[in-house]
Amino acid sequence: MSDSLFAPMLIHISLVALLYVLLTVMRAPKIWGVGANTDGSNPFAKLEPRVSANLSNQFEWPVLFYAVCIILIARPEFYQPIYLWCAWVFVLGRFIHSAIQIFTANIRLRGAVFTINFLAVMGMWFVLGLNVLR
Question: Which fold would CATH assign to domain 2-133?
Answer without folding.
Answer: Four Helix Bundle (Hemerythrin (Met), subunit A) (1.20.120)
